[in-house]
């Protein structure tokens, strides 16, 4: 059996706020008091058997991408960058035509889980952001928990746009995880929508081996196919050891074929993002 290569669809990394690199004055509370920097991430990945990861700067750092782009550009076989972007700024949108010239950049993140979501969406439409992302093949990662109509509306309006549903659109543990992901099933009919099966232990109240995650993955694969379901951790807020989560995707999905497990573990993500380096060896 070929060893499963795990590529994590999302890990936040950040640096401490300093006078030379300050956080915004209205920054929200970070997920942990000590910044999660790349050396610690590498140690965690090695212990969990994870080969690569997409890195994303967290909202409390503001809209900066310097750290994640620096790391991804230096080691594209291991890291890619999901970037923050001024989606409502027409001048910034014009630069999307050259986005592939930005070393390490693999996708753009939109956080639509708080604040004026409708206003942010309308501004992005007016600026031409979604149309430009579709035209130039910029993949998006959108976190809009529970807003299934939002995803469907974008897929219908911009059918060539690639959208990954962050954290399976789940936000709390109030509903059992297999039930919480069930409303995503209808989105599987849109070929431009994929699902990041990330942060799932944060929405559970059960120990390893997390049978609810296994059931949720089966439901997602049934709806989207293994080609559009991606392993992820959201490591900085993970409530269980990283190795326990990675074990689910390596050894706790017996109903999937070896090929399907390889896709969900990382092959599908790198194909979706046109990021060949992690599998070039």
UniProtKB/TrEMBL annotation:
A Pfam family of this chain: Amidohydro_2
The UniProt record lists the keyword Lyase: yes
Keyword Repeat: no
Organism (species): Rhodococcus pseudokoreensis
InterPro entries assigned to the protein according to its UniProt record, in alphabetical order: ACMSD, Amidohydro-rel, Metal_Hydrolase
Keyword terms: Lyase
Name this protein carries in UniProt: Amidohydrolase
Limits of the Amidohydrolase-related domain: 7-266
């Amino acid at each position: 059996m070929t060893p499963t290569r795990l590529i994590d669809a999302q890990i936040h990394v950040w640096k401490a706020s300093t006078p030379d690199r300050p956080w915004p004055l209205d920054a929200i509370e970070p997920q942990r008091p000590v910044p999660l920097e790349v050396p610690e991430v590498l140690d965690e990945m090695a212990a969990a058997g994870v080969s690569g990861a997409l890195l994303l700067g967290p909202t409390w750092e503001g809209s900066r991408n310097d750290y994640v782009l620096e790391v991804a550009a230096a080691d594209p076989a291991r890291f890619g960058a999901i970037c923050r972007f001024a989606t409502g700024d027409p001048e910034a949108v014009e630069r999307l035509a050259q986005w592939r010239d930005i070393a390490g950049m693999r996708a753009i993140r939109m956080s639509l889980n708080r604040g004026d979501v409708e206003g942010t969406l309308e501004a992005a439409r007016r600026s031409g952001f979604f149309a430009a992302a579709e035209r130039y093949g910029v993949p998006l990662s959108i976190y809009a928990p529970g807003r299934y109509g939002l995803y469907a509306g974008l897929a219908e309006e911009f059918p060539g746009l690639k959208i990954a549903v962050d954290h399976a659109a789940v936000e709390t543990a109030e509903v059992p995880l297999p039930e919480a992901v069930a409303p995503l099933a209808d989105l599987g009919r849109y070929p431009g929508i994929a699902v990041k099966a990330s942060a799932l232990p944060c929405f559970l109240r059960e120990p390893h081996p997390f049978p609810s995650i296994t059931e949720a993955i089966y439901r997602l694969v049934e709806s989207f196919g293994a080609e559009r379901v991606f392993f992820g951790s959201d490591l900085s807020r993970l409530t269980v050891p990283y190795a326990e989560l990675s074990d689910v995707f390596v050894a706790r999905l017996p109903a999937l074929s070896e090929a399907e497990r390889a896709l969900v573990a990382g092959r599908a993500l790198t194909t979706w993002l046109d990021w060949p380096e992690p599998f070039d060896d």
